[in-house]
Design brief:
The complex is a heterodimer. Chain A has four helices and nine strands, in the order βββαβββββααβα. Chain A is α+β, with helices and mostly antiparallel strands. Chain A has one domain (about 10-105): RNA polymerase II/Efflux pump adaptor protein, barrel-sandwich hybrid domain (OB fold (Dihydrolipoamide Acetyltransferase, E2P)), CATH 2.40.50. In chain B, the strands form four sheets. Chain B has a six-stranded mixed β-sheet with strand order 11-12-13-10-4-14, with helices on both faces. In chain B, helix 2 packs across helix 7 (about 225-235). Classes of the chains: A alpha+beta, B alpha+beta.
């Protein structure tokens, strides 16, 4: 399963890519593989505020709906509208196709996230 | 993962099946993917391992009378080698299980029941036996079942047998059929809304049969199919699932299956009085089909609203692979159940608009 080096990860299988005090958030390659064919993505509104571990989106396969949780506190700056009509993009490339862009409320929370190495170890135990 | 394994477990693993625990059984939810498997069954064929299903032989001189007392459908009208879909109900009209009854002989029948309900069903049949002279034989652990489903099912199976499958009518079965040298029982039944067969074979021969069918079917588009598409297929075809559309708290009349409840049959049956009264008084709840008019996917358990009033819940919902629309079944207050009515589905925190449509999605597409 593909795990990119320069990202932060959570045990709920979200990734976070930091650019200054902003970040892109998506689901990992492992997550998309476990979910199977993704047929629907629910997106939040711009300016919505979320706390760490709060559900901000839902990704649905034919079989089930899965909540996607915020890795850190943040405010929604952009949503990836493309996913509304082409949710399968998450299956095609889960890292290229981010779900939201956020403004970090508290950048010090990044220290609590998993590194790519730690995430690789974590998913090795999941299968 | 803990659970019971069918004799095909290793085959599922080698075909890269994603194994889940379903009703205590370790079975593949999908192999290649739910959508390609679903489409294979609609357009060509799929083969399912449904060996987890329960099977019970009922024999003895009172078999017919006893089954007629247990079942809502009319067992006395069954012809030899015919199969009937029926419910077993509690005295309050709730459903013990939905099942198929196969008639071998005047005093010998065969029941195919839901895996999750097998123990409960067996006990229920024992407990109500009273003075009926009947023998039960739980054959579940020695009989495997393969469901070969789809428009190409007959062509595939015919290539392995001299038995003329075109003579086998829908909801009939025959036994002692040789398929590639293996003796099986075959019924023209299924749970997908497509033509197809269910093949009953003993544990020793199931692996060989499974491999042979997959091999000869490969060129005709046959795919191994998992529990995932079994559910989407049956849902599109308006076939109920116990635990969703049917339960001890939902009567078959509320679920819209009056046709399989013969209130006027000669025999008395468990649940008759309450079901009769419910039918005469009118149903308070009705199972409907609906289509979302906005984005989202309805899921089992989501609440249904009319304005501020909660009027029911979703029993099954999907983004339908065949129709490519978000559709569902819901059990709602009958006064709102008219075709074309607007309702709302609460999806997470948001009410999403929906319209009531015919629940036989496949036929009305």
């Amino acid at each position: 399963m593909n795990v990119l080096k320069d990202l932060f990860y959570t045990e709920d299988h979200e990734w976070l890519k930091v650019e200054g005090d902003e970040a892109y958030v998506g689901i990992t390659d492992f997550a998309q593989d476990q979910l199977g064919d993704i047929v629907y993505v629910e997106l939040p509104e711009i300016d919505d505020e979320f706390e760490k571990e709060e559900a901000f989106s839902a990704v649905e396969s034919v079989k089930a709906a899965s909540d996607i949780y915020m890795p850190v506190d943040g405010v929604i700056l952009e949503v990836n509208d493309e996913l509304l009509d082409a949710p399968e993009l998450l299956n095609t490339d889960a890292y290229e196709n981010w779900i939201v862009k956020i403004k970090l409320t508290d950048p010090s929370q990044l220290e609590e996230l998993l590194t790519s190495g730690e995430y690789e170890e974590f998913i090795a135990e999941e299968v | 993962m803990d659970g019971k394994r069918t004799p095909l477990y290793e085959e599922h693993k080698s075909l890269k099946g994603k194994i889940v625990n379903y009703a205590g059984w370790l079975l593949p939810v999908q192999y290649e993917g739910l959508i390609p498997e679903h489409n294979a069954v609609r357009n060509a064929a799929g083969i399912f391992d449904v060996s987890h299903m329960g099977t019970i032989f009922v024999s003895g001189k009172d078999s017919k009378a006893y089954l007629d007392y247990l079942m809502t459908n009319d067992i006395s009208k069954l012809k030899l080698n015919q199969i009937v879909y029926t419910f077993m109900c509690y005295p309050d009209g709730g459903v013990v299980d939905d099942l198929l009854v196969y008639k071998y002989d005047e005093d010998r029948y065969f029941l195919v029941v839901n895996a999750a309900n097998l123990d409960k069903d067996y006990q229920w049949i024992l407990d109500n036996m009273g003075t009926y002279e009947v023998e039960l034989d739980n054959a579940s652990d020695r009989i495997c079942i393969l469901a070969l489903q789809g428009p190409s099912a007959e062509r595939i199976l015919q290539s392995l047998t001299d038995y003329d499958l075109s003579q086998l009518k829908f909801f009939y079965f025959d036994e002692k059929i040789q398929v590639d040298g293996i003796e099986v029982m075959i019924s023209r039944t299924g749970y997908t809304g497509e033509d197809g067969f269910e093949i009953f074979v003993d544990n020793e021969n199931v692996v060989k049969l499974w491999k042979r069918i997959l091999k000869v079917g490969g060129d005709l588009g046959l795919k191994p199919a998992g529990l995932g598409c079994r559910d989407t297929l049956r849902f599109e075809a308006a076939l109920p699932l116990y635990g969703n559309e049917l339960s001890k708290d939902i009567t078959p009349l509320e679920a819209g299956f009056k046709f399989f409840v013969k209130l006027k049959k000669e025999s008395d049956f468990i649940g008759k009085d309450i079901l009769n009264k419910q039918w005469e008084d009118g149903l308070e709840r009705t199972l409907v089909g609906f289509e979302l008019l906005e984005r989202g996917i309805p899921r089992e358990g989501y609440e249904i609203y009319k304005g501020e009033e909660k009027i029911g819940h979703v029993t099954t919902g999907y983004m339908s692979p065949t129709l490519n629309k978000s559709i569902g079944n819901a059990l709602i207050a009958s006064k709102y159940a008219e075709l074309g009515n607007d309702i709302e589905v609460l999806i997470r925190k948001k009410k999403v608009k929906a319209k009531i449509i015919n629940k036989n999605f496949l036929k009305n597409r």
